[in-house]
Write a structure and sequence with these properties.
heterodimer; A: about 250 residues; alpha/beta; Nucleotidyltransferase, domain 5; five-stranded mixed sheet; 8 helices; B: alpha/beta; about 55% helix
């Protein structure tokens, strides 16, 4: 089946592509770690999800590398994540998108439009990169994080939310004999408290909260965010693809 | 002394203008050779040539000021009219630092200040100025050595410590005008008396430093000129209320140089008559600051000097024009308070009631008024890492503006002159997302 639109999300860590039908349903998806040679990678992923579709199929591009996508219309991740999450949940509310390089809190309106948003500043604390660096130090693979943190008897307090300082803090904790599962749980709490502070800037009075982005694949993050905000947080289905889906929806005729 | 004075006068009357016109001629020649600029902006303002000449001559003349006339280094919010009758040449380190910011010299100058132990958390204007003194580097050729440092705390408290450091380093007297913070709409009478007493002392100190006496008529005339200049600047800004606005507020950031640095002089006022007439003519002819004005925005706080062109282009390309700013407006607010019949008393009031010396409800009032008067449908609040007094309270201001006026408001983290505090890609991403929200 020829897709009605294709969306690509060239993020800081991974590159995602989806093809959708005229109703916005995802027909095909592809995810790869980001290749520094962006153009050939995008071409490959678009071909993989497009099923031989020609240039007549509109292409939407988002993410930090969106300007590198030839023949695509560039839209920022903020607009795309709002559109994508709204399409999957059908509800307005506050969306927390946790990506590799930044975290965004977006207030989504009743028609899937962006009402307001806040982002982390230049600092990488509160992003996927923070988790990646510290989990790398603890030698914990990303797909085992949820179970490890969930099984921890007690969280070890990690006071620093700066990636650089937290890394040395974790080294001291490990040297002091703290259990790795407790450290991982503590890390998630530190990260969630940072994101919660950002969320409060735009979330006041919002009815529902959602989580998207690659970090949301890790169940421990949703749990930590729920604890930090003291309210339910729903993970958007296929959270890593929300930006690419939104990009496709933005160019759907 | 006499030779120095001749040089100083010749710099303003003959040599400076000749050099400036040579420079303008060269620029025109270069432009003629290059292709005409097609971009999102309207035709350039003709007055800009005069502005460049005025400021170039001012800085050129400054090279010969020390030894010829008394020289004062003053803060942007200082009542400089009091110094004019005594023949002071006034240097504005903040304006100089803005020039360094536009030319992206701040990291190097700041490094020189940081090497002497000044913290990077200090205001980048302070680091630039101290760094310029320490390293002996400036893009304007030479800054004249001051005989007097004149500091007014109506814009921030940092200026006091900054000027103290200058006073110690340069071994010159520092005069302070301390303006208590205004809570509520009007300062209490006893506070204005306190400021006025300091202005009287300032007159005595400045007389001692310059070796001259203040003539009351000359002081009244300086106040009159400052009042006229301030009102003329206000007229220029107010023409931005027309649709399309005849210029961009970004132009305003550059055209404000005379009202900051030459306030209280006839040259300043002559310039703003020229600019006002040109803007009024553009309004009559329907010429806009940008070609296709679809959205009108308010800017709060200082500009991001090193990225001002890139950012205004990013906006202009999408039909967004900044039509007003709380910063350029600050120099148009004082006119109604200045009274030539009572130069010192009215200066005490005018310089105490500046935007940064007033509480949050007053600041909200100014932003609300600007947004309404200029029919802005959005606002960008620059959270300036260097300017804490201007940036504090912006989260609340953002919420109130958005709720009360129903406009879109963005908080943007940057710095007025240190590019190391600005992430271009992330910043532009945020601004683009903000603009996408208007569709």
């Amino acid at each position: 089946m020829t897709p009605a639109a294709i969306g690509v999300d060239v993020g800081s860590t991974t590159c995602k592509a989806v093809a959708i039908d005229a109703d916005g349903r995802i027909l095909a998806r592809a995810v790869e770690p980001l290749d520094p040679r962006i153009e050939p990678q995008v071409e490959r992923l678009v071909a993989a999800v497009g099923g031989g579709a020609g240039p007549e199929v509109p292409l939407g591009a988002t993410g930090y590398g969106r300007k590198r996508v030839k023949a695509g219309r560039a839209v920022t991740e903020i607009t795309c994540h709002a559109r994508g999450a709204y399409a999957r949940t059908g509800r307005p509310g506050v969306l927390v998108d946790m990506g590799g390089q930044d975290t965004k809190v977006i207030r989504v309106g009743a028609a899937g439009e962006v009402l307001d948003f806040a982002m982390n500043d230049k600092c990488a604390a509160g992003t996927g990169r923070f988790l990646e660096v510290i989990l790398g130090r603890l030698r914990v693979p990303f797909d085992e994080v949820g179970a490890l943190a969930g099984g921890a008897a007690k969280a070890v307090t990690v006071s620093s939310t700066c990636t650089v300082f937290a890394e040395s803090e974790v080294i001291s904790l490990v040297a002091g004999g703290a259990p790795p599962d407790g450290i991982v749980k503590g890390l998630h709490q530190a990260l969630a408290s940072r994101v919660a502070a950002l969320a409060r800037a735009v979330a006041s009075g919002a009815p529902e909260m959602f989580l998207s982005g690659g970090v949301a694949l890790n169940a421990a993050m949703g749990a930590a965010l729920r604890d930090a905000l003291a309210r339910p947080v729903r993970v958007v289905p296929e959270p890593q693809l929300v930006g690419a889906l939104g990009a496709a929806l933005c160019v759907l005729r | 002394m006499i030779l120095r004075r001749v040089q100083y006068e010749a710099a303003r009357r003959v040599v400076g203008p000749v050099l400036a016109s040579l420079d303008a001629w060269q620029r025109r020649l270069r432009r003629r050779r290059g292709r005409p600029r097609a971009g999102p902006f309207g035709p350039p303002l003709q007055s800009t040539r005069k502005l460049k000449e005025l400021m170039a001559v001012h800085y050129y003349q400054g090279r010969f000021a020390d030894g010829a006339v008394p020289v004062a280094w003053v803060t942007s919010g200082f009542p400089v009219e009091v110094l004019r009758p005594l023949g002071f040449h006034a240097v504005y380190p903040e304006n100089h630092a803005a020039i360094c910011g536009v030319q992206r010299l701040v990291p190097a100058l700041s490094d020189a200040a940081e090497a002497e132990g000044f913290s990077r958390d200090l205001c980048s204007y302070a680091r630039t100025d101290l760094g310029s003194v320490i390293a002996g580097r400036t893009p304007v050729g030479r800054l004249p050595r001051p005989d007097l440092l004149a500091c007014c705390t109506n814009i921030c408290q940092t200026v006091l410590y900054w000027y103290r450091a200058l006073a110690e380093r340069l071994g010159v007297p520092l005069v302070l005008v301390d303006t208590p913070y205004v809570y509520g709409r009007e300062a209490k009478p006893h506070l204005l008396r306190y400021v006025r007493d300091q202005l009287e002392e300032l007159v005595r100190v400045a007389e001692r430093v310059s070796g001259r006496r203040t003539e009351p008529e000359a002081l009244a005339e300086a106040a009159r000129l400052a009042k006229v200049g301030t009102d003329l600047w206000g007229e220029c800004l107010a023409l931005g209320r027309h649709r399309p606005a005849p210029w961009t507020a970004i132009d305003g950031f550059f055209h404000m140089a005379p009202i900051v640095s030459l306030r209280g002089s006839e040259a300043c006022n002559a310039y703003y008559r020229l600019l006002r007439d040109e803007l009024a003519d553009r309004v009559r002819r329907g010429v806009g600051g940008i070609r296709d004005e679809r959205h009108r925005l308010l800017w709060d706080n200082l500009p991001i000097w090193f990225a001002v062109r890139e950012l205004s282009t990013l906006f202009a390309e999408r039909g967004f024009n900044f039509v007003c700013t709380s910063y350029t407006n600050a120099w148009a607010e004082a006119g109604s308070r200045i009274d030539p019949a009572d130069p010192l008393g009215s200066a005490a009031s005018a310089y105490t009631h500046v935007i940064l010396n007033q509480d949050l409800p007053n600041r909200l009032g100014i932003l609300r008024r600007l947004a309404r008067d200029y029919a802005a449908d959005g606002a960008v609040l620059h959270s300036d890492r260097s300017c804490k007094p201007y940036s504090i309270g912006q989260v609340d201001l953002k919420e109130r503006l958005a709720a009360e006026l129903g406009i879109r408001v963005l908080l943007l983290e940057a710095d007025h002159s240190d590019p190391r505090a600005w992430a271009a890609e992330q910043g532009e991403n945020r601004l683009t997302a903000f603009m996408e929200g208007f569709a």
